[in-house]
From TrEMBL:
One of its GO terms (biological process) is cellulose catabolic process. Residues 1-26 form the signal peptide. This is Endoglucanase. The lineage of its organism: Eukaryota, Viridiplantae, Streptophyta, Embryophyta, Tracheophyta. It comes from the Eukaryota. It comes from Vigna radiata var. radiata.
């Protein structure tokens, strides 16, 4: 096996070097941005519109919410399965909206429009999860039966169980992240659709009140525990989502009540936790960067501790910093043990670019011991992550499906790996899909723009459908990458 891995790696390197000779090492960030947004159309659940570009996908999940007599159609499947998990979907939405807020002004107009369509597909669904008083719907689909099948979303015959949390039971994590998502999205739509923006903001406040009034983790609830876990348990606590939701509401409303909430509750909710991670379960680094904006712009100095924490985080990430603790592969990719590693690379690159934008308005640099990190350094580090993902890596492989001539062909994704309804109209039952799962053939449907989990700690990647840690794409890998690609699409000659 080792010899085979080494052979394959040498093959990809040779191919990659040959390609570089022919075309230079630059990347088409505009193309990558367009494809990264298009990916979300492949993750859609519900009634698909006529302008659906990934036409091999069809309607699915049309009865979602039936057991609560409510409409829960729409939203996104989180990854390569057919379940709608509210926690990562809300985080995905927050990051899509934040990408638009920070980088929408430099996106090509058509891609800004597509990005807002991607946001709205999620927010329309998140509004439905708050449609009944003192209740939040947190998940649709039984993941245990779903994961026991290899089935197209259009053919699903597994249980579409709806999971709800009713007051006074707690769902601070999902509700807090939903509040953040709707608040951020309300700002994204403020100029193009003021009425929708107001609806989003009003529901964001409702979600936050639910999160704050009934404190606790949604995955502690007996009805949810064995279905959210081990997939999207709240492993790191619900406290960060309360501060995260409040921070986004502060930014969306400029209401001092939310500022006071952050100041009053910060210590008890773990604001001092400086963890060099940012993702669907841990918001601390993103929270610190988000709140730093007010300090850097001179609006308030009462949040100075968050700015200090943001800079401590950056010092742990940048390799040149004496306090760097982040692991990297030999090829230079951010690496954290576990699955879907590229989620860390895309989210950290996003925070670096956002903070660099904030610093651009000042003459500040970040002190990391005796080293000072400038906005330029942050952007260079982010660009190394981007270029690695797009193909500048030891494998010579683009980890974005459909970008370049060399990308993963056998991704862990049901809809992509099974023949489409157009090509195979007959029903494919739960276990009948196994022949496609076990096949060594490339996936018949190209999930354009999907970013897979990525290589291991040695920069090795086996194009193996069964290795979901490496080959499965997720919405929360792509979402922060939208903003990152938008920046470099507007600054293609940055070095």
């Amino acid at each position: 096996m080792r010899k085979m891995k080494a052979w394959r790696r040498l093959f990809y390197v040779a191919v990659f070097e040959a390609a570089l000779i022919g075309m230079g090492s630059g990347h088409d960030y505009c193309e990558a941005l367009s494809k990264a947004i298009m990916f979300f159309e492949g993750q859609r659940s519900g009634f698909l519109p006529q302008d659906q570009r990934l036409s091999w996908r069809q309607n699915s999940g049309l009865s979602d919410g039936w057991n609560y007599n409510t409409d829960l159609t729409g939203g996104y499947y989180d990854a390569g399965d057919n379940v709608k998990f509210g926690f990562p979907m809300a985080f995905t939405t927050t990051m899509l909206a934040w990408s638009v807020l920070e980088f929408g002004d430099v996106m090509p107009p058509n891609e800004l429009r597509n990005a807002l369509v991607a946001v709205r597909w999620a927010t329309d669904y998140l509004l439905k999860t708050l449609s009944q008083p003192d209740r939040i719907f947190v998940q649709v689909g039984d993941p245990n039966s779903d994961h026991d099948c290899w089935e197209r979303p259009e053919d699903m015959d597994t249980a579409r169980t709806t999971y709800a949390i009713d007051a006074p039971n707690a769902a601070s994590d999902v509700a807090g992240e939903t509040a953040a998502a709707l608040a951020a999205s309300s700002m994204a739509f403020r100029s193009s659709d003021p009425g929708y923006s107001e609806t989003l903001l009003r529901n964001a406040i409702t979600a936050f009140e639910f999160a704050d009034n009934y404190r606790g983790a949604y995955s502690d609830h007996e009805n949810v525990k064995y279905n959210a876990c081990p997939y999207y348990c709240d492993f790191n606590g619900y406290q960060d989502e309360l501060l995260w939701g409040a921070a986004w509401l502060r930014r969306a409303t400029e209401d001092d009540n939310f500022l006071n909430y952050i100041q009053s509750n910060g210590k008890t909710l773990g604001a001092d936790d400086t963890i060099n991670e940012f993702g669907w379960d841990n918001k601390h680094a993103g929270l610190n960067v988000l709140l730093s904006k007010e300090v850097i712009e001179g609006k308030t100095y009462s949040l100075e501790s968050y700015k200090s924490s943001a800079e401590s985080f950056i010092c742990t990430v940048i390799p040149e910093s004496p306090s760097s603790t982040m692991e990297y592969t030999p090829g230079g990719l951010v690496y954290r043990p576990g699955g879907s590693n590229l989620q860390h690379a895309t989210s950290i690159a996003f925070l670096e670019l956002v903070y660099a934008n904030y610093l651009t308005h000042t003459s500040e640099a970040i002190p990391c011991g005796n080293v000072y990190i400038s906005a330029q350094t942050l952007r260079q580090h982010a660009k190394r992550q981007v270029d690695y993902i797009l193909g500048d890596n030891p494998m010579g492989l683009s980890y974005m499906v459909g970008y370049s001539n060399y990308y993963p062909q056998r991704i862990h994704h049901r809809a992509s790996s099974l023949p489409s309804i157009k090509d195979h109209p007959q029903f494919i039952a739960c276990k009948e899909g196994s022949i496609y799962y076990n096949s060594t053939n490339p996936n018949p449907n190209v999930l354009v723009g999907a970013i897979v989990g990525g290589p291991d700690e040695n920069d090795d990647y086996l194009d193996d459908r069964s290795d979901f840690r490496q080959s499965e794409p997720t919405t929360y890998i792509n979402a922060p990458f939208i903003g990152v690609l938008a920046y470099f699409a507007a600054n293609p000659n940055f070095s």
